[in-house]
Amino acid sequence: MLAKYRALPESIRQYLLVTGNYWAFTLTDGALRMLVVLHFYDLGYTPLAIAMLFLFYEIFGVITNLVGGWLGARLGLNRTMNIGLGLQIAALSMLLLPTAMLTVPWVMAAQALSGIAKDLNKMSAKSAIKTLVPKDAEGTLYRWVAMLTGSKNALKGAGFFLGGVLLTVAGFTGAIAIMAAALLVVWLCSLVNLKADLGKAKSKPKFTQIFSKSDKVNILSAARLFLFAARDVWFVIALPVFLASQLKWDHSSVGAFLALWVIAYGMVQSIAPSLTARKSVPDGRVATLWAGLLALVTAILTLAIYTSWVAPQVALIVGLLVFGAVFAVNSSLHSYLIVSYAGDDGVSLDIGFYYMANAMGRLIGTILSGWVYQVAGLGACLAISTTFLLLTWLISFKLPRK
After folding, report:
1. Of 58, 26, 67, 115, nearest to 362 (Cα)?
2. What distances in angstroms separate CA 323 from CA 126, 220, 286, 349, 399, one per listed residue?
3. Which of 18, 36, 115, 225 has the greatest count of CB atoms below 10 A from its CB?
């Protein structure tokens, strides 16, 4: 196996290293989220209190993507990826304290560190692909980005299962220790093997260059912000609470259903090129078409919930599956377009700015999900989601055609 790996071209070996790092990180990230949710629920925390544990995770994601792209261009993507892995090990280590010492501020601080680590790792992985694919191979670029993005979400869903299993088998502290040890091995391998100058800009960019000067990057970033706000405004808090409180699903059923949804979502992302790039690589016109389709699907689901012309349980399950499939294609299209649009020198600057908008959308969606659901219910969350998707659709008309 090792001999076959060494016989591969350098670009393929580096892609496999980047992907392996990203997979290992994503698996622990999904498992950590499930561990925290289940453990603190067992301790008697309310759902809203548990959600607040992840507030800094999302806030620091916004900051990290903005600054991380600049760091990647100055230091090299190998360093930002390895820093991300190291910070995740540190975040896990913070949770090895006895349960009595795991106060809310301490856990929020650990989650903040994990949020920084996650977005450094993701930005580095997405940016690295741009540097490893030849400039004239857009089809290959799309397939590699789709595979990386899709596999990440499938593994995040698998991480939900892993977190639950580890909690049952080893307890909270044991589960954290196992994940930290495994990630330490990955980190040491990465330090030795990942190429030193990956993605490093020829001239060191100034800090003022963290904001993109590319119109197409700015337009795509705005579309991405509303796209992910539209997902999280009903998916993050409102949906699981609705399933548990209104449809009377138990917690294991809610967790299993959402984990399977994330895995299926990732699988659709991986095959997006076969759905959208049969004759040529996609452009702004294709992104606009799929954004409009997603807005239509969400509008129909909103009407079904408000009018009750279909049983809520049926409407949600069917609607969520269709929404997930169409959203996955939208997400994969956007992930390819940003890598394609990003400048060749200091690629992480543009990609970091774009994922800052992504993190901002998640933050807005998460906050609105809890507040709007508490005030007006799931139907209102879906109505806001539809509005955000209409904005995504309108913004996408400004994206370049070819």
Report:
1. 58
2. 24, 21, 17, 31, 23
3. 18
Q: How far apart are CA 384 and CA 104, in angstroms?
A: 31
- Residue 13, token pair as written in the block: 């070996």
Q: Please give the full DSSP string across 142-211, using - where no structure is assigned.
A: HHHHHHHHHHHHHHHHHHHHHHHHHHHHHHHHHHHHHHHHHHHHHHHHHHHHS-TTTT--SSPPPGGGGS
The encoded tokens of residue 213 equal: 């000067």
**What pTM did the predictor assign?**
0.78
CB burial of 178-212 (b: ≥16 within 10 Å; e: otherwise) equals: bbbeebeebbeebeeebbeebbbbeeebeeebbeb
Residues 8-59: tens digit of each pLDDT:
666 667 767 777 777 888 888 888 877 777 777 777 776 567 767 777 887 8
Biggest alpha carbon–alpha carbon distance for the chain: 62
**DSSP secondary-structure letter at 247?**
S
Q: Cα 192 to the chain's mean position, in Å?
A: 27
Other residues' Cβ atoms within 10 Å of the Cβ of residue 242:
21
Task: Tell whether the model's pLDDT for residue 207 goes beyond 60.
Answer: no
| Helix ranges (DSSP H) in 246-283 | 251-270, 272-276
**Closest to 332 in 3D by CA, of 65, 81, 143, 157:** 143
